[in-house]
Amino acid sequence: xxxxxxILLHLGFASAAMVAVPLALLLxxxxxxxxxxxxxxxxxxxxxxALSALLVARDGASPLHLLALVLLLTLARAVVMVRRxxxxxxxxxxxxxxxxxxxxxxxxxxxxxRMAHRLIFG
Length: 122
Description:
Strand content: under 5%
Number of helices: 5
Largest sheet: none
Number of strands: 0
Order of helices and strands: HHHHH
Number of domains: 1
């Protein structure tokens, strides 16, 4: 099966985000440094995932495309919050962004007929 470039990009960004996000969330709880650079990487990977999702459409837009737009808006809001020193609001926005990433990924894998479903289940 030949996988189109937009889907490869999407899978690459999503894979990076799914690794970087939990690490960025865990570092402060473990008392380790590195949250800021890893958080930036996680946010960029999530933004790349959302943007590349907009390029992946089999029959037009789907609810997952709406979720991608919400993810982009949530990430932008999270950046604004942390720049204003509103760390609790930033944390809340990033948790929402992370949840949407995993919900979209799970939906893409579990919905029959989608490329992710075919890649995993054949």
